[in-house]
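Re: Re: token formats

Sure, here are both.
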Amino acid sequence: MKRMQNAALILLVSAIVGQSLYLAFRTTPRDDPGPPAAQVRVGDTLGFLSGHVEEGTATTVPLREEPGAVTVLYAFHSECGFSDDVAPVWGRHFATPDSGTSGVRRIALTRDPPGAAADYARRFGWRVELLSVSRFPDTSREHALVARTPWAFVFDSDGVLRFHDHGAELERIDKAIAAIAVDTVHRGPGQDQR
């Protein structure tokens, strides 16, 4: 009897170990992960972004503008719960005129397909340009900007990323916009920002 119990115990432990190994190797990716994803950091220059508008038409959005201009990208994703949390606040933010800051261009950027992005924006009453980067590879700079959502990126008139923060930090974002607009007017186009 004791022999039978030992044999059953050994079989049971072997089955558990076998199942564990099977699960470990089954869920371990075997494919080459490919090239690393692009990253965009403060100080990086992006002259333009490519993407698709609501109708699915390809477009290029310049990030280099007249001195004093600022471009703000608001990265969101319709399947992100955190994006859902800030979306109504962004709706009010987009509807409020910029106080004391002219030349601010606001663009909602997403990896959602163009139609889904437009539906999401309408649902929350956004009055803002939309740009979908759903058709670009994960290694592109466009996808690097939508890797974290909701997130905001502030570019100066030379297309230099000067500030980024969580999308809920609208007061900090607005302060950065105002400071960047003043700074770029004073230093002029093409001058070093240090």
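Second one below.
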Amino acid sequence: MEVKITSANFEKEVKNSETPVLLDFWATWCGPCRMIAPELERLDKDMAGSIKIGKVNVDEEAALAAKFNIEVIPTLVLMDKGEIKKRFSGYATAEDLKEKIK
């Protein structure tokens, strides 16, 4: 399930999540971000229940983007129990993402 992540709900939705969370740092004006969105939706359906997709709009959540040192978007950060496990930037297909997450 895709969830909008903000500074206000970060602790609840990411740090205290029962499942790993794939954070998608994106912006409305970013072409590659719009291209990866349907791939993330596909990944979300394929991995339903085993992962949560968190969407972080870097324009609305500049503090969160800074906390994660986001310099390029889209950047995806896989977190489990509040710890960063993997990080990758740029466009990828749902299949590519599944491989990177494993």
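The first strand starts at residue 2 and ends at 4. The mean pLDDT is 95.
- S.
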